[in-house]
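JOB MANIFEST
job_type = single_chain_structure
chain_count = 1
residues = 380
[input]
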Amino acid sequence: MIRERLMPASPADRIGHSREQADRTHAPPDAVDTVRRSLAEPNNTVRWQPNGSPRVQKHDAPDGRVVVRSGVVHTKSSGDVVDGCALCGNVNLRIAVRNRHFTIGHCVRCGSGMVVELSDAEVPLDGMDPAHHHESYSQRYEDERLRDKAAVCWDLLVNKTNRLANVQSILDIGCGKGAFLNIARRAGLRTAGVEVSLDAAAEAAAAGHEILHGSIMNSRFPPDTRFDVVAMWDVLEHLERPIDALKNAVAMLAPRGRLFIVSPAMGSVFDRLGILVHRLSGGCLNQLVRMCWSQDHLYRFHPIGLSHVLMSLGCQNVRSSRVQLLSLRPDRYAGGAILPNWTRSTRLNQWLSKSGVGLARVCRVRNKVLVCAGGMMERA
């Protein structure tokens, strides 16, 4: 059974839950390797127990191992149309960008932009070993991410849930090493996560969170496990089949539970300007386009289109908006460990990045879409 934590009397007290009580389930320093071996087996979830040993639960959910990605992410392009939007199922996509690096399609039904084809040069060199690619990206992102992003997402969640009213459990999809879950546990919540990187999943499990190692596209917790909140912070854009991920996320919502999604917004200043500059330059100036789309960032979503997809999955009270959320350090948007370099000069890249971020903040550019959706009132 999942260990239940003692709940403070009120949501306000829960937010200020003491760090000492939250850290009681932390594993000893050598626990990560032990947890990692347990998580390496498909369909295992792991939580470190107070008695000093990992609790491993095996279930009949689909295998969480990731399928090898091919050079073509979705479908082959033909003329000016490609077949199939992986979000809404629209049969025809319009070509928005085509260059030697990739082809970007635009769905006229849901408004999403997506990578439909990658050149061999854009496919990761370790593409034949997808597990290694996920480990590499996870580590690079942890090193480059904005330090207080988890705190920003937490504040957003608290505001949208009326200070955690009726929230006792939370699932973080794409939890990494557990930065967001650590904050949730200090608030007294039961915490769980899904993470595709084995190393990151092991660290999060060793920290006391219940972790499922695998991709949300083909993995989920046992059918009797439900959560009051399911969060996807900058995860959906990385997935080849976002509709499968959304179906699994909705299936893990408790009755009256809430799903929170933050993801890059299609139609923001960044991708509009990037596509315009790319077209006017004949494809020579593609830095902004490559900042928006790559082998790791496959999608950008329109808030209305994403809301309609969630409603088709049975979600209620779906609300969407555009927000500003900068995920990386201000000097890393024009080059670094995550995004491609704009120029050959590191200093120039850093200056361009800082200038662009500063301008975006002054102009209040809303680069992300935020969707809040309620689960179904009753389940069969």
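[summary]
The chain has one domain: 24-324+365-380.
The radius of gyration is 21 Å.
exit_status = 0
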